[in-house]
Write a structure and sequence with these properties.
Blueprint: H1 2-13, E1 33-38, E2 41-45, E3 53-58, E4 67-73, E5 77-81, E6 91-96, E7 103-105, E8 119-120, E9 137-140, H2 148-154, E10 161-164, H3 168-173, E11 188-191, H4 204-209, H5 212-229, H6 231-242, E12 248-251, H7 258-269, H8 274-281, H9 283-290, H10 294-300, H11 314-319, H12 323-337, H13 340-348, H14 352-362
Parallel strand pairs: 9-12, 10-11, 10-12
Antiparallel strand pairs: 1-2, 2-5, 3-4, 3-6, 6-7, 8-9
Helix pairs in contact: 1-10, 5-12, 7-8, 12-13
GO molecular function: phosphoprotein phosphatase activity
Organism: Asaia bogorensis NBRC 16594
Keywords: Signal
Length: 364
């Protein structure tokens, strides 16, 4: 969105700070959670209703190759040392000893230095009590800043497809040169061919003069345009998901708006409740702020970037991932199509057959 045009220079010209590990996913209380304390130590928590549990760890979210690390824990929380110290991404299986269904869990936010807002969309509970599989859907800001150390982790994710929702100008400004490392081949890239963003989103001096209310209204107007404007890219994305071109990464520049909308639709198609989707969407603002450095703030005050953006009342609205923005997109869909399911079917070719295929493939 216009945030990208106002901030693409800022995000690409500044060094990102590592995100604080204290930022956690906005999960519901019915889900288990995991946070990296300090690799290889993790802090786990799970609903008390699960009762005593056994805790397993695995290199993948698969019961094959699981290792038991704690037995009959009835405290609803644990600190666990991974038996795979060289593995920067591990998955835990919380298994109730009384036979209740277990839950896979991993740290949602990947600890990367060069890219903000890189996270796993797995683990969320659906309305019919299944869970989105971990390690299938990733979302992030533009990955062009990935460091060699970052690739040591990202390369283990096995990403097969990358959907880039940036404009052509954004892609040219910060191209992605994917390092293959140990992979046999790089993922397939699917860049948007959009030359510009919809609407009047490029006047930086105008943005700097906006108040917060005006900026929020402009944000909501942009979101209302997204469903139709990005329908071709989203239709192609869902076709790849149905064809199992996963694990997949979806990104734009900040990983907040275009990526947030696409990610919301994926979760919706999988049956995740709308309130959970809004909570997941709302994480981006905090994650982007966690990467703000002094050089980032200096860039916002640079005249060539519009000047005085750091002090602009509009800046908080631009950086926010206010659920009202995503709700504006949903409202636009419902006004035009009647329901989100109807939009998925009519605009994106994701009807009942495709919905079933997606849920069969990507839910536990």
């Amino acid at each position: 969105m216009f945030l990208k045009n106002a901030l693409v220079t800022l995000l690409t010209a500044t060094t990102l700070a590592s995100p604080p590990l204290a930022i956690a996913a906005t999960d519901t209380s019915s889900l288990a959670t995991a946070q990296v304390t300090m690799v290889p130590q993790y802090t786990l928590a799970w609903p008390h209703a699960l009762g005593p549990v056994d805790i397993f760890v695995s290199r993948t979210a698969s019961k094959e190759g699981m290792t038991l690390v704690q037995q009959h824990n009835d405290s609803s929380a644990a600190r666990v040392i991974s038996p795979f110290p060289g593995q920067r991404r591990v998955y835990f299986f919380i298994k109730p000893v009384d036979g209740k269904p277990g839950q896979w869990v991993a740290n949602r936010i990947l600890p990367l230095d060069g890219v903000a807002n890189f996270r796993d969309m797995g683990g969320y509970e659906t309305a019919d009590h299944h869970h989105v599989r971990w390690g299938e859907f990733y979302r992030s800001a533009a990955p062009g800043g990935l460091t060699s150390a970052d690739y040591a982790l990202v390369d283990t994710l096995g990403i097969k497809s990358v959907t880039d929702l940036r404009t052509q100008a954004e892609q040219q400004k910060q191209p992605t040169h994917w390092q293959v490392s140990g992979q046999e081949k790089p993922p397939a890239f699917y860049p948007s061919e959009k030359p510009v963003l919809p609407g009047d989103m490029t006047d930086k001096s105008r943005l700097a003069k906006m108040d917060q209310t005006q900026a929020k209204a402009l944000m909501e107007a942009f979101y209302a345009k997204m469903p139709d404007y990005y329908a071709p890219e989203l239709k192609a994305l869902f076709a790849r998901l149905v064809a199992h071109q996963t694990p997949t990464l979806t990104h734009c520049t900040a990983g907040k708006d275009r990526t947030g909308f696409a990610s919301a639709l994926i979760l919706y198609a999988l049956g995740v409740p709308e309130q959970t989707i809004l909570s997941d969407y709302a994480m981006s603002g905090d994650l982007l702020r966690a990467h703000m450095t002094p050089s980032f703030k200096a860039a916002m005050n640079d005249p060539k970037n519009g000047g005085a953006m750091a002090a602009s009342p509009a800046m908080s609205a631009l950086l926010n991932s206010d659920p009202a923005y995503l709700e504006a997109a949903f409202a636009s869909i419902r006004k035009q199509y009647g329901s989100i399911n109807a939009y998925l079917a009519k605009a994106l070719d994701v009807g009942p057959t495709q919905i079933k295929a997606l849920r069969d493939a990507y839910l536990d």
